[in-house]
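Justification of computing resources. Each target in the renewal requires a structure prediction run like the one illustrated here; the chain below, 205 residues long, is used simply to show the kind of job we budget for.
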Amino acid sequence: MASTKSFAEAVKARRTFYALTNESTIPDSRIQEIVKDAILHTPSAFNSQTSRAVVLLGEEHVKTWDIIAEVYKQQLPEEKFNRANERFKGFRAAYGTILFYEDTDNVREFQDKFKTYEDKFPGWSEQTNGMHQYHIWTALEAEGLGVNLQHYNPLIDVRLETEYNVPSTWNLKAQMVLGKPTSGPAVENKEFKPVEERMKVYGAK
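Resulting structure tokens:
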């Protein structure tokens, strides 16, 4: 069943949660539906549709964070790895991970098609990926899930490509961790810069 929160309520409620369990407040089918809706309906420049996602739930989620820990263990001194591994254990304890990618072949296709804007498409690609992340994050939180966003790429890229048969043209951007929250958000009382410094309005009635 879809959340009854309004879009505005969901936007205001969205926060980062780190303390997550390996439980979900919604069925796996609903998680897939949320991601599918984002892939289908999130806008992109020239309708280029360059964003991609890999949804990893249950044991596949656990395996992903085992892989990430293994990669970093090979790259970091023992002391630094031990500190990083405490974070990995926390992410591993959650319910799922969504990997966000941009298809570089798809980006190049539109660069070739619209030469006037060739230098703009990589930036537009990043923008649409961010919109996908925000869309999914907000929708999951509206369903009672806690979410945090990680960026352990590029060290993990090749291993995850191999494990999940990801095309080499897909460029990894972020790892979204989700699960049932066990406590409040990382920042309980978010501070806001004055909106007057960040917003200008002309011609309003």
